[in-house]
TrEMBL record:
Alphabetized PANTHER family for the sequence: DUF427 DOMAIN-CONTAINING PROTEIN, SLR0655 PROTEIN
Chain coiled-coil ranges: none
Family matches, as InterPro entries: DUF427, DUF427_sf
Biased composition (Basic and acidic residues): 1-25
Location of the region described as Disordered in the Swiss-Prot/TrEMBL record: 1-42
Domain DUF427: 52-142
Protein name, per record: DUF427 domain-containing protein
A Pfam family per the record: NTP_transf_9
Length: 185
C-alpha cells in the first residue's frame, strides 16, 4: 500500500512536470553546440577554452584566457574569472552573502567605473567546497548588468529571469531556466 501511494505520488509529480514543460520543447543541438539539458546535476566545473571579456562603462574590467565555466542542467554556463585578470580597482566587496548547495557560501561584488555603479553584480566563493576548489577567489558577473560580455568574439546574452548568472551564446541551446514557465524547475 505504501509503495503504491509512493508510485502514485511520483506519477503525479511527473505529470505536473510534463504540464510545466508543455510549450517548452528541448532544442536539439546542432554541430558545435551543447544542450543545457545534457549538463549534469550536481554541476560540473571545467576550464573555458575561449577568451572571456567584460566591459562596463566603456572600460574592459576583465579579460582572461583562464576562466572556468560551471555547467548545470537547464542553465547556460556561468563564467568565473581569476582576480589577476580583473581590474580590481573597479570591483569592490558588497554586503551580504548566499549559499549554494554545491559550491558553498558566496560573497558579492559591486562595480564602479568612472561614476557608473552597479551593486551586487558579481559573486565569488572564497572557500568553496572541495569539488569547486579551483574557483576560490574567482569572480562571476551577471551578464545583463554589464555593458557587454564576450566568450571568444561572441557577445553573450544574459540568462532570463534576473536571478541566474548564466551567459547565453550560440554554442548553447535550451530552453533555459529563468524563461517564462520554468519557475517550478
Amino acid at each position: 500500500c505504501v509503495r503504491a501511494r509512493r508510485e502514485g505520488r511520483r506519477e503525479r509529480e511527473r505529470e505536473r512536470e510534463r504540464e510545466r514543460m508543455e510549450g517548452l520543447k528541448r532544442v536539439a543541438p546542432g554541430a558545435g553546440q551543447e544542450s543545457v539539458w545534457d549538463y549534469p546535476r550536481p554541476p560540473r566545473l571545467e576550464p573555458e577554452k575561449d577568451r572571456v571579456r567584460i566591459l562596463f562603462n566603456n572600460v574592459t574590467i576583465a579579460d582572461t584566457h583562464k576562466a572556468f565555466r560551471v555547467l548545470e542542467t537547464s542553465h547556460p554556463p556561468v563564467y568565473y574569472i581569476p582576480p589577476k585578470d580583473i581590474k580590481m580597482e573597479y570591483v569592490k566587496p558588497a554586503p551580504g552573502s548566499s549559499f549554494c548547495e554545491w559550491k558553498g557560501r558566496a560573497s558579492y561584488w559591486s562595480v564602479d567605473v568612472n561614476g557608473k555603479r552597479a551593486d551586487k553584480v558579481g559573486w565569488s566563493y572564497e572557500q568553496p567546497t572541495a569539488s569547486f576548489m579551483p574557483l576560490a577567489h574567482h569572480i562571476a558577473f551577471y551578464c545583463g548588468a554589464m555593458d557587454a560580455c564576450y566568450v571568444g568574439n561572441e557577445k553573450a546574452q544574459p540568462q532570463p529571469g534576473n536571478f541566474y548568472g548564466g551567459w547565453i551564446t550560440s554554442k548553447v541551446v535550451g530552453p533555459f531556466k529563468g524563461e517564462p514557465g520554468t519557475l517550478g524547475w
